[in-house]
Amino acid sequence: xxxxxxxxxxxxxxxxxxxxxxxxxxxxxxxxxxxxxxxxxxxxxxxxxxxxxxxxxxxxxxxxxxxxxxxxxxxxxxxxxxxxxxxxxxxxxxxxxxxxxxxxxxxxxxxxxxxxxxxxxxxxxxxxxxxxxxxxxxxxxxxxxxxxxxxxxxxxxxxxxxxxxxxxxxxxxxxxxxxxxxxxxxxxxxxxxxxxxxxxxxxxxxxxxxxxxxxxxxxxxxxxxxxxxxxxxxxxxxxxxxxxxx
Length: 246
Fold this sequence. Notes:
mainly alpha; Serine Threonine Protein Phosphatase 5, Tetratricopeptide repeat; 2 domains
């Protein structure tokens, strides 16, 4: 939280260069949680600014009245910063209340990103054919070396026992790096395969929720409902997501 607030403060105090400013603004458009934190920061900052201005105006009036009564110079009244403690505390309470309220209103993207963080930020090993290449790709993925992982997943020959796993992991790399269109392509290919336990449809629904463009939520709910009705891969998690979306 502290690092995030320092980052937001740097933007509003012009401490970022042009490239960093553009990255900040793009993150506001794509990251709902971060956008809410920026909104809360500006709200709190404005409240404190207005209270400071009000306090200053009172002091200016007092000084002006004192100047009219006295002919000799009078000491400038020092600001008692202890008086600001209640205002700072009130601002913190306001920030916490609004932040809690906003976070209770989970968006489709927040739900999906939470699920992805809990379930797909670390991949398990495999005993399929092509084991060494696939496991090295998984190791790269778990170290967040996504480009290297992607190269290895793509290198696995079509038709080998590891092909399906490689395609799934390839799609997951695109998902966690927010290249949603490519992720959807990979998961659609898997969804069309004749597998006993096919994760393609569930991963596609998850990707649509995370992308969260117009119509994505509705399309994702259709897929999740289908998964639940047919008891496909991920049916229990699909029902939980539906409950939170409704």
